[in-house]
Amino acid sequence: MSQNRDVADIDPPIEPKKMKYVTCYCRSHCTKWNPQTHCFVGDGKSVSHATRDNHAQDDKRLRIRSKSEEVAITVAALHLEDMGSWVHLATQEVATMAAVPSSLLSNPLIFINSPTTSGEYDLHMDPQQPNTGIHALRTHAQSNTTFIHSELCVAHLLSKASSLAESQEVDTLISSLEDYLRQLDSDKKLHWSQQRNRNTVDRNGRLVINTGVYFESVIHRDSVQQVVYTLSAVMQNFYFVPRKALRLQIVGNQDLLIASGAPCSTLSFEPMYLVQPATPFIHVTRMTSPRVIAPDVKPHKAQPAMSRYGKSPLLEDVPGLSRVEEILDGYPAGLNATRQPISDIWLADIFQQLKDHEGNPFLSHSLVEGCLVFGLSVDSFEPNSAKPGQTPSSATGIWIVCYNFPPHLRYLPKNIYLVGIIPAKPDTTHINPYIQLVVDKFKPFWHPGVTFSWTGNLPNGRSYLALLIPLICDMLGAWQVTGKPAAMAHNLCTICDIDHDDMDLLDPSKWPPKDRQQLLFFAKLWKNARCTAHQSQIFDVYGQCWSPLFDLPYWDPIRFVVIDMMHTLDINLLKGHLRDMFQINLKHQGGDGTSHTTTVKDKMNIPKTYVAKLPACKKLIAEYPRDLLYKLLEFHHTILYVICVENTILGVTSTKVIGTRWILAQNIARWQADELSPSVQRFLQQQVPVQAITLDVTVDEPSGMWLSDSDDEDPQDVEPNKIEPTLVGGVIGVDTTDPAQMVNESLDAQNVERPHLLLVQEKKLHSTIRKILTYLGSNTNDLSCEQVSQRSTIDILRHICRLIGINASSVATGCNVKLPLVDAIIEKGEETVTIHLASFLPEKDMKRTPVLGIDIMKEIWQDMQRTMLPTWTSHVPHDWVSLTDLSASQTRTLCTVHLPITLIRLWHTAKGQMRDILANFMDLVTAIVMANMRTTSQDQIAAYDFHIVRYMQQAHQLYPDVSIKPVHHAALHVGRMLEDFGPVHSHSSPYYECYINFLHRMNTNQKLGGQLESTLMVTSARNANLSALLADNTALCSKVSGMVDILVKFSQEDPQRLARFRKFEPVPELKLGLKVALACLDDHYHQLLCRQLPAAVSAPRSLSFYDEIMVHGITYSCAGTSKIRNSLVIFHPAATMINADTPIYAGAVEKIFHYTPLSFTSIFLEIRSFRPVDSGLDSYKKYGFAGGFLCFRNVNDYHVIPISAIISHCALTSMGAQPGQELVHVLPLNRLRQSFEGS
Asked: Which PANTHER family has this protein been placed in (predicted)?
């Protein structure tokens, strides 16, 4: 309530404090350089104290960066008689100015005229009239100060030098001044070109992108500064040294230069590294309207909170250097046309079938027009590496990789393109604006293409076409990017139309495939919906939202999605088997894993919420309205399933009722259209009169919720009958009504029960069953029948009677009704009844004997200590107890190497359950090894499908208490992905996981929401550019050759085996190690060598011996060295033709020697082989290559073989010693397609 106050009582207004101004005479802002008087002139400017202080700091920086003013004044004051001193000082001034960049692209010059409308830049700087013409700079712009000052100084010096008498020193000075003037002109041209509008179109309608800015040198001209700044850049961006340490390093470099007499004043404490291309940050608004997505729009105050999204421009820097361009053109064209076996993604079906917009093969192998293929990957990660107890944060990275690179170059950090980092983890559709930015860049590359104004081989430019094909993510990322629902939704699969309730069907041949046109129809329907409620209805029925990837005309959401194998197989399938099926329990002895419960779901059990809708659905089918198909979609999946089962309504090629709600509704509509069918006639005769049915939902009015009601789209363009040719005419026609009104009526009509009441009854049922099972399984009288009946109800006890086949009405009851029911249940407590009751308990109550008890775990740990693995394999701790501590590669090593060695040894003579669970586990191991081969073939894919299907089927029988999860269903699709995209190594996500590990090592302020993400973006760009610079700039590499050699050596010694991700050059096919001796061969080995050589070539005894050799990045060493782990190999015997029947041997490399006669050059190995155990006595051989084989280690034969006869390394496990011989187990670690039958 307001109160009246006297005018005199009103407080006088507070006058703002007046700011005091001073006159500033700074040289960087408030005065101007007069070339006539050689000094700064002007009356200064009235500024605040703070501004004056800032100007003083700018003057200080200007004096540090350039001493040109003082030198110019000194030079101007000299008399012509002292010409030698003048020329000397002028020469020093030019050298000083040329050593320091006059401008940076990160701080662009400001022109008087707009570069976008003023045409191309012409080299025309006139020393007589500096800073004039159409390309003149604004004199008062702070970013122009250093450049204008340098231009005026060089113009003045050139004018003075031209008036001097001719001499060699003067001519050299004039030449240096002209060179520096051209350098300034080139820098100005670079800024002009960068600021020109790139969205121009050539005569063929192609977008023209100015790529000339990426071919200008931005390296310091002075050799000393190149070395100093390269070292600082490497320390900061490769090894992430803190800024304080860099400051100390730069000061030390200054001291060194002072001590050597070299100029050092231009070294900065905070060196600036140019990032090409520059990284803009975009504020993306999350709009509530389903039809509005507004990236690149700066929000006003009324809009919701923004996230700062770091994004790099795409594809402009693709041409790169000339050598890179040759690689991009040469690799796909140089592949072998024979496609068996497939060694890379380019030989797989998807890439072989790529077409352009006219239907012609996309890869024309023409040098006139470039063709590029890219892949997209999205993954969320923890940017701060939160410690235990801290709230974890999240960020989402978007990567693009160019598949035109060969595999050994494709995933180097400098070739992986980090598009952007999204703060936090976006929701289902909130990721769309970020993906839309990527898609918008790729649209013009499809048709008519894009022209790069300058490439490494063609300075006049070249046109490019590009495709964005595979989306490589884990299951969650793939569902999110493609607009699919979560894993537990009914429409869970991106490839087939199987329902979540149908996952127990493990025969892929019976799964209904998805239809691309139908999927795009529903996605467009969702996009054009007028309200979120309508979108929710569409999403609930078909499980599909709109994805920006659908804007690409060629993109197939069914075939182009690759579920990453590492997450599917290693992290989920292997860990899931150990955790859920084997189970690890260190408190009890291991058992056979027998379970008495089951998780089989009754598909005919309609939820209580929807039971009342079943008569309405049958009535609707009997009436057969014109829009029957779309009205059926309003009913729950279970209702449609029950109707299909009761009336045997199947798909066209199906033998079982299966599919999502959309598939079942289509089958019912197609079935009802055949009025003469006997099953339809029977169904119509069974229906009660319509007046006798009370409906819970209105079905008389056509809903129209499945038609697009967009204002800007003609409904005829998306007629469903055009995308579903199998439907019968007349079924599709629907009258359009307001979808919002329809949805509201539908929601109001639903009669939903209160869920918590049902939950309470279920809890009481579970509690009663637990007490009954406890009573039946107890040998003591601790629990009485009265206690069993406590906290239970009569209805629950009667329900239990019905479950086990007891007629509750026949049980005699007295005053206590519950006790006789309990007695009847207990009297029927047979073993089968007990198992049946236990099946109604939740999974947490389904207890069974763990397989990996303490006794089995001890055996595994002991075998792990006796196993020798090569250095490149992931080391698993010998005392592991928890799966959460193991990485994906460690889990694969554990399950494919260590566990088969121990479990086969322990259980190979077991019978019954133990034998079955061993065979089941080895099926899984075989499938995992098959999937991770570096080559694929039709036979291999068929073998994978056979083993993974058999594993699923047997696991479902052996472990009935373990429910089938979406990851199991995804694993059954892996064979198709291998066929479409080739071997895993060519499209796997561990490369991106390694990139995330690289991001974790960066120095950040840990402030989410934009700052941390921008730091990661800038640092990763610097790292990639610096790696490319050290690899491709020969002039710089010659000056820092020692640094490059050390970096290569460090990358080879990387303990985390990530060297292939950071090497500057691809690994040569063969690389010898350290030369250890020049010695003679033994007589026996000399004879073996002579057998390997042609008859006309004689083998000398004196040869060069080495300690190791690297073959395709894999190192093989000698047994007598410290790297003995790399000496154990699998090889073919000498002088044999390699085929499927060629035997293999296991052995240890004794010596490596290089034999180089005049007409023959090769590398040979001395190998001491192990004698295999008889096949009838070897229990491991029955499991094929996944089981390995047994050998006697100290019963040897000797071989001399060429390096090409080596197959792979092997794991060697000591199995115990017998009199005179040592038994060992050999497990080949080959990832190529070979037969592993030991000989």
From this structure: F5/8 TYPE C DOMAIN-CONTAINING PROTEIN-RELATED, F5_8 TYPE C DOMAIN-CONTAINING PROTEIN
Tell me which residue of 965, 889, 972 sits closest to 577, measured CA to CA: 965
**Token pair of 986 as six digits:** 């060519």
pLDDT at 304: 33
- Direct distance between the N- and C-terminal alpha carbons of the chain, in angstroms, rounded to an integer: 101
CA distances from 763 to 449, 482, 843 (A): 63, 38, 14
Q: At 1228, list the tokens.
A: 């080949």
Q: Do 188 and 85 belong together in one domain?
A: yes
| Amino acid in position 536 | S
Tell me which DSSP letter residue 790 carries.
T
Q: Residue 311: in which H helix or E strand, if any? A: strand 307-311
Tokens 């790292």 locate to 1023
Q: What are the backbone dihedrals phi and psi of residue 1209, each rounded to the nearest 5 degrees, phi first?
A: -75, 175
Could you tell me how many residues make up the chain? 1239
Q: What is the mean pLDDT of residues 17-22?
A: 66
Among candidate residues 197, 222, 257, the one where a domain is terminated: 197
What is the distance between the alpha carbons of residues 577 and 918, in angstroms, rounded to a whole number?
Answer: 12
Domain co-membership, 286 together with 422: yes
- 571 plus 630 within the same structural domain: no
The continuous run of DSSP H or E covering 200 comes out as strand 200-201
Q: In which domain, by residue range, is 976 found?
A: 565-585+850-986
Q: How far apart are CA 854 and CA 430, in angstroms?
A: 48
Task: Answer whether residue 1056 is part of any domain.
Answer: no
The answer on pLDDT for 580 being more than 50 is yes
Q: Which residues contact 849 (CB under 8 A, 6 or more apart)?
A: 588, 590, 591, 592, 593, 594
Taking the C-alpha atoms of residue 90 and residue 1237, their distance in angstroms, rounded to an integer, is: 80
The strand pair at 462-473 and 450-452 is best described as antiparallel
Q: How far is CA 614 from CA 63, 405, 605, 888, in A?
A: 87, 58, 12, 47
pLDDT, tens only, 168-179: 888 888 888 888
The H helix count followed by the E strand count for the chain is 40, 26
d(CA 1199, CA 1064) in angstroms, rounded, equals 37
pLDDT at residue 1147, as a whole number: 93
Tally of CA atoms within 13 A in the half-sphere of 1102 that contains its CB: 1
Chain centroid to Cα 744, Å, comes to 41
Cβ 643 vs Cβ 651: under 8 Å: no
- The DSSP annotation for 851-916 comes to SB-HHHHHHHHHHHHTEE--TTSPPPPTT---GGG--HHHHHHIIIIIHHHHHHHHHTT--THHHH
Same domain? 688 vs 640 = yes
Whether residue 1173 is found in the same domain as residue 1206? yes
Distance of CA 262 to the CA centre of its chain: 48
Tell me whether residue 211 is in a domain: no
Do both 636 and 784 map to the same domain?
A: no
In this structure, the answer to whether residues 126 and 193 fall within a common structural domain is: yes
- Tell how far CA 154 is from the center of its chain: 52
CATH number at residue 1090: 2.30.30
User: Which of 728, 749, 770 is a domain's end point?
Assistant: 749
Q: Looking at the structure, do residues 740 and 778 belong to the same domain, yes or no?
A: no
> What are 730-779's pLDDT values in tens digits?
333 333 344 334 333 333 333 333 333 344 467 778 788 878 877 776 55
Q: Is residue 1168 part of a domain?
A: yes
Distances (CA, A) of 1145 to 1066, 1116, 1226: 31, 16, 10
Q: Is residue 500, in this structure, part of any structural domain at all?
A: no
Number of folded domains that form the chain: 6
